[in-house]
Amino acid sequence: MMNLFKRFKDLGIEGEQAKFYDKMTRDHRISEMKRQAKEVAMYIKEGDCILEIAPGAGYLSIELAKLGKYKITGMDISKDLVEICIRNAKEAGVKIDFIQGNVSNMPFNENAFNFIICVLAFKNFKEPLKSLQEMYRVLKPGGTALIIDLNKQATMKVTKKVAENMGLKGLKAYVAAAIQRSGAYSKKEFETFISETEFKDYEIKNNDIGFSVFLKKTL
Known about the structure:
alpha/beta; Rossmann fold; globular
């Protein structure tokens, strides 16, 4: 299963799949996005530069933009999802800079962002260590990156619930949960990745789907 999952890492969601992902998110995950936006807002202040990595259809960034005057950038590997993000932000009447890019080689200068958020996407990155190193590079000193993702050791019941929250049912939810879980990392694996970066100040907290990884770039 893991070898199968690796084949799809760093592949963007395009075409009809991108449209389906947008509809699924709009129909089933807006309340989740609002909750996560409020969580992010606890760690930032007006005027801060925020980066969302792999924003999907853009709804988390959109909900965050509604909460304050932030300079928000969203970067996704998928060309079609970026176009969907731009359209959704325009419809919502918020200003967000959505661009195409790969997390392992981000098109940003050093020390560009106060806060980075990445939700349910880190397990999809082909080069997890390089992705963390890039996050460190583009963070401003004192900035924080927050990665929210599944725990490899989570029960199938928990991961299946995540799939169901995305609008999948029955066998489809079970298969999606199994694939997602096989690609996820354990807390120990995350700590190993972190130990090989310049991040020295970090905290891993359990949450309802896995864990939240807080990474701080010290001054």
